[in-house]
Amino acid sequence: MLSSPMLPSPRRLAPPTRFDAPQKQSSRQVGARQAYDGTNHWHMMESTRSVFATNVTRYCTLAGAMALTHNELDILRPKVYPTISTPRSQPASTSLIDFQLHNANVTGIPIYAATSAPRALLESKMVDPFETVFEWSGLKVIRVQISWPAYPDVVHEIDLAVRTEDSRRATAFITRIEVAMAIAEHFAGFVDKTMNRRVTPHNEDWAFVPGAIYALWLVALHHTQGNVFQAQVRYTKDILVGPRAFLGNFFVNGLRFKTSRIKPSNLQTCAFELTKTTNVDLDAMSDSEEDQYVVECIWSAKVVRVARQKAWWKNYEKEHNTWEPVASFDGGAEHFLETFWARVDAGGRDYHDLTQFAVGEEVFPTGPPRRTTYVQRLSSVFEDRSCGSIRVSKRASSSKRPLIKKDTCSCGHCLDGWLSSRMRVRMGRTAESLFLTTEYILETRTGENDPVPIGFIICDTALRYLPADMYSVMTRAFCYGFLSVLRLIMDITCDPDVAKGVPTTDAIWTYIDELQEHGVDPEEPPYFEPGMFKEFRDGGGRIEYALNCIVDRSFEDSPVGSEFDDDKKEMEEELEDDYPGLPRCANDLDFDMARRKLGLSKERKGPYFDFAKRIWYTLDGRPGITAPP
Q1: Could you please report the per-residue DSSP string of 337-391?
Q2: Please, are residues 339 and 367 in contact by the beta-carbon 8 Å criterion?
Q3: Residues pairing with 151 in the sheet
Q4: Which one of 13, 174, 299, 337 has the lowest number of neighbouring Cβ atoms within 10 Å?
Q5: Would you say residue 321 has pLDDT above 50?
Q6: Where are the beta strands (DSSP E) in 378-446?
């Protein structure tokens, strides 16, 4: 404690005067003040403050408080440390920006949801969607790097504007939901760009597989250096799940332009393929490919000096339909012409010879396409081999049998009195969708005896209707046998000239037996080889699994199904547009009777994976393990 003869005593409370105080200071006090002006600034200021604070607390009059010197007042001021300014090009914080959903047990948001779900839905599910997450940084633009271990030579960078100013100099910052949607969109393009790239065996576990977009979650953004941030993404490759498992028309982005050439697209119900064909990479396209877009169907044909077809472009309304010459369909889209003219009643005229048509004549399709199907080709192959007693030929000729009208039929056109035209078309469209999706997924693998990855099974709707008990024997050959069954059911139910027979289990096995005995058309895909059927049968495969899958998915997609929503409603309207002449019947939505007539159990079976609980179920309904063996 510093002593001074002028300190007030308990008996005399008068404070020292301004002129007396400096003369009575001791050498220790002066030294302290000299130290205050020296180099050890902060340390000595603390010690000096403690000395004078004790003296000041002894003053009890206003005059004494006002008699403090300038140095004393300066010491008593609050301690303020100097601020060190940060360059504007550097963020002032390294805090990460995380993304989270309400009531979720995992961090992050699904990338497929951020790219395709309505923004209002994301706002209701996301935590703090409207928070301005880059206001602290002082930056206008950040650069986000997207890289992946399996593709070290591919680094995708995007510049993201995080601060904007309008004409009135009002500043607006990007919000959390806007950051998530922008990064998710670019990451989806990154996945699409690297999907077909080869990877080294060391990085094979990180390679993107079909359906990878459904297994990616955007977790956070991390600051690395300067204005560069890196996206943290979680990849659950072992459990690939999707909102509809590729069923239905699922678009990430629509078409950006319309030009003069049609881009071929033959998988109109396979969502993953549609995503690849409609999201055009403008920078990677050459000049010759720049004029391409996807046609949905041909609406009508008009005979002019140069024959033209009126095309309905996918993702566009009717007012955007255009008349296109035949040359526009060259290079892979010729099947649209064949499908259209197969539905036109030209009165026996050959559409290749336009002189048989009047100039200005316009023709329209009148019914479903009459395709040459697999079963028809089998019939011709077997008859050429002089197999007069072959059941396939008899089965094809049985299509001329008379219709049977029963009490449940109200239209008079039901096959066997129960299979109405609309029910048959509905099952055929479902079988075609399941077949195309499964075929696309299996084509990405090589090796007939290789086990099918669990992720492929989960993301394919048809394969999930196979009990988990047989996943240990599910090879590529086994799945091809199952795929061939779907193909046979699709051909029977889709083609009006052949589908007079009901796709029962006996009818399907009849076709399979004939295939194993006489072989197949050389033009058919390899999965119709007899060995594939044997693998399917030896592995415990049954026709009932395919029929059950088709009937159950047809039920769920129908107006009486539990999954009927706005998207399914649009599909229902498309069915009405594609088949306007189909009669209505009381059997159109009687799926219980359909199950009974096809030899299926009354209780619904499958799918054998519960998305909500992530549990596999065995054939008898017992919960299995969280992943099949």
Answers
A1: HHHHHHT---TT--TT-GGGS-TT-EE---SS-----HHHHHHHHHHHTT-TT-H
A2: no
A3: 148
A4: 13
A5: yes
A6: none
User: What pTM does this model have?
Assistant: 0.40
Instruction: Give the chain's length.
Output: 629
Give the residue carrying structure tokens 């069954």: 485
DSSP lists the bridge partners of residue 463 as none
Q: Terminal CA-to-CA distance of the chain, rounded, Å? A: 81
Buried b (16+ CB within 10 A) or exposed e, 441-479: bbeebeebeeebebbbbbbbbbbbbbbbbbbeebbbbbb
CATH number belonging to domain 262-363 = 2.40.50.40
Q: What is the DSSP string of 550-614?
A: HHHHHHHHSTTSTT--HHHHHHHHHHHHH-TTPPP-TTTT-HHHHHHHTT--SS----SEETTTT
3-class DSSP state of 113: helix
Q: Look over the chain and give the mean of its residue pLDDT values, rounded to a whole number.
A: 62
Write down the domain spans for the chain.
1-82, 97-235, 262-363, 374-616
400: amino acid identity, one letter: K
- CA–CA–CA angle 180, 183, 189 (5° rounding): 135
Instruction: State whether the Cα torsion 19-25-30-32 is positive or negative.
Output: negative
Distance CA 577, CA 304 (A): 26
Residue 292's nearest CA partner among 329, 340, 341, 251 is 329
Confirm if 370 and 497 have CB atoms less than 8 A apart: yes
CB 557 within 8 A of CB 430: yes
Give the pLDDT confidence of 126-184 residue by residue, as tens digits. 888 888 877 766 677 777 777 777 887 887 777 777 777 665 555 677 888 888 888 88
